[in-house]
Structure to design on (602 residues):
């Protein structure tokens, strides 16, 4: 392992993200979402000044989670569409020929790109997430109970998706890899909602849909853990009426699940390295 | 004890230094299939240190695939490669290798100077900024160092590719169609560059369709056809002996005997052709002919061109099929 090369490629990837239009479109989308949510929270407080504290917490928690879902969606789209071009795009255009003819191993390049993308995605999630917390705190006076864990899980979700994007982009075209990664992300989220409904209806068959999909692609599992860290902990304890709610989560994450996610990322990254090493350029 | 072991190391070092320098490129039995298509079929050759080797052949002969196998960009199905004495499986074999790909593209969001800095870092060498700028100046991009590559024309990108191949002080340079996007002036620049590399004893593997260029700068040529080596050797070996074409009148039998003494003679009217072993005898021969009262209208030393020879070899190959 050559740390110098990995670091060089990681900074190159960050510079690419900063200089390409991706960053600007990401910034525009994020600012639009944050301003909309600021306006929404402000109106919520103004129009429904007569809410009980419990009602206000419920509304704030679920809307915060909804907006955070929007942010994680932007991060997912952004990194998945960065991961595709940065690997497959460079192979297709020939940019990787001159780079890989240098005295370096392909796995170092892959790891460097992964590190660069993970830093970019995590940086985005943390900055945008913090901005959102401040908006909610300023408008509604609500501060999530475990913000650090929640943001770390969201960053993890981004890392999982871009690792998948990198694996796909070593084998298929840049656009296809982005589309497939985002498609799978959406499908797992829907499977998670279906599983939640199954749980609310005490239907183990339907509930298993969510569990299986959460093991195959850990994005939705991490997302549910993050939601749980953002919402008011007393909320779900009071009532079972919110079972199956798509923007409230019943339980936090187990250590085993987080470990499985780490293993999943390592496995998929290893697979990507294997696929990239065997590829003729 | 310590004295003895130091002496031993010294002996070993001297023994290693006395060994002939390993060739810049050594490859043996390279083979590559893409599905049912055999692209390269048992190619072997060497490029010696400081030598310029031309790789010639028609489209689809497997030239680019061979180059990519040498550089570890394509996995050979069989065969071995040594670059500068190291097995090509080891990335360090490429530490002193510069490469301009046929499909040359550089990060469009970087400036030319940043692309150079990136390649220096990847090569793991220390090259001062002034030397990097000099490299860009060599290819005519001195005043574009701070511009983004995305705004470069094809020709400028190819020039940048040449600078990238040169920047990390290579001992071997692999150029795959280095003049494909260049204007005639750019081609002349590349020719001068190749000659200066040759003078600095940098080995060059050159794949080019421009046979004239290859003929002017290459020491040896390998001709590939349908994935195999169809012919190889120095230009003299491939092109055979030189000949001297003369247009003369007033040729006496003595003068004709003098011509025949210089080499095998063929005559058609006033046109005489003498096959020469050595071109240095031409001035003496002409002086003798004038002394014998011959009127000399034209003296033209020549040999069959590489292009004619290449076409012969390729046609012979397709006739055998």
């Amino acid at each position: 392992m050559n740390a110098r090369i990995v670091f060089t490629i990681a900074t190159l990837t960050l510079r690419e993200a900063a200089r390409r239009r991706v960053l600007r479109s990401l910034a525009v989308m994020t600012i639009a979402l944050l301003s909309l949510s600021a306006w929404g929270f402000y109106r919520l407080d103004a129009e429904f000044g007569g809410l009980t504290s419990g009602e206000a917490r419920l509304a704030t928690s679920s809307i915060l989670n909804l907006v955070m879902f929007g942010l994680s969606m932007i991060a997912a789209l952004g990194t998945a569409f960065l991961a595709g071009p940065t690997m497959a795009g460079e192979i297709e255009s020939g940019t990787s020929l001159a780079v890989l003819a240098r005295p370096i191993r392909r796995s170092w390049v892959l790891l460097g790109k992964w590190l660069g993308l993970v830093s970019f995605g995590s940086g985005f999630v943390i900055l945008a997430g913090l901005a959102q917390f401040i908006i909610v705190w300023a408008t509604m006076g609500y501060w999530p109970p475990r913000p650090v864990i929640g943001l770390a899980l969201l960053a993890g979700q981004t890392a999982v998706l871009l690792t998948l994007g990198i694996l796909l982009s070593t084998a298929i075209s840049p656009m296809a890899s982005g589309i497939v990664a985002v498609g799978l992300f959406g499908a797992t989220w829907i499977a998670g909602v279906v599983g939640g409904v199954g749980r609310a209806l005490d239907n183990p068959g339907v509930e298993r849909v969510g569990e299986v999909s959460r093991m195959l692609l850990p994005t939705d599992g991490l997302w549910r853990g993050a939601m749980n860290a953002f919402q008011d902990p007393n909320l779900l304890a009071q009532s079972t009426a919110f079972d199956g709610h798509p923007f409230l989560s019943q339980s936090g994450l187990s250590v085993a699940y987080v470990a499985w996610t780490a293993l999943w990322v390592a496995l998929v990254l290893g697979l990507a390295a294997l696929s990239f090493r065997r590829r003729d350029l | 004890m310590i004295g003895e072991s130091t002496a031993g190391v010294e002996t070993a070092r001297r023994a290693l230094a006395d060994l002939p320098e390993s060739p810049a490129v050594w490859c043996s039995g390279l083979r590559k299939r893409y599905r049912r298509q055999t692209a390269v079929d048992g190619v072997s050759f060497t490029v010696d240190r400081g030598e310029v080797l031309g790789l010639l052949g028609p489209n689809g002969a497997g030239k680019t695939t061979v180059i990519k196998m040498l550089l570890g960009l394509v996995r050979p199905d069989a065969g071995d490669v040594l670059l500068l004495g190291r097995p090509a499986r080891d990335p360090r074999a490429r530490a002193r290798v510069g490469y301009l790909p046929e499909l040359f593209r550089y990060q469009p969001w970087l400036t030319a100077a940043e692309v150079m800095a990136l390649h220096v870092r990847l090569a793991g060498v220390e090259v001062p900024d002034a030397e990097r700028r000099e490299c860009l100046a060599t290819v005519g991009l001195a005043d574009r160092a701070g511009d983004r590559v995305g705004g470069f024309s094809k020709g400028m990108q190819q020039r940048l590719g040449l600078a990238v191949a040169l920047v990390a002080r290579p001992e071997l340079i692999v150029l795959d169609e280095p003049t494909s996007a260049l204007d005639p002036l750019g081609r002349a620049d590349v020719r001068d560059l190749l000659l200066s590399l040759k003078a600095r004893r940098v080995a060059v593997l050159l794949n080019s369709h421009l046979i004239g260029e290859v003929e002017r700068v290459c020491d040896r040529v390998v001709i590939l056809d349908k994935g195999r080596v169809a012919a190889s050797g120095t230009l003299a070996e491939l092109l055979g002996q030189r000949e001297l074409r003369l247009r003369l009148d007033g040729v006496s039998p003595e003068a004709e005997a003098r011509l025949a003494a210089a080499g095998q003679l063929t005559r058609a009217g006033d046109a005489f052709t003498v096959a020469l072993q050595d071109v240095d005898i031409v001035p003496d021969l002409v002086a003798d002919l004038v002394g014998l009262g011959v009127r000399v209208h034209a003296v033209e030393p020549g040999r069959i061109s590489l292009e004619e020879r290449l076409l012969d070899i390729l046609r012979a190959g397709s006739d055998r099929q």
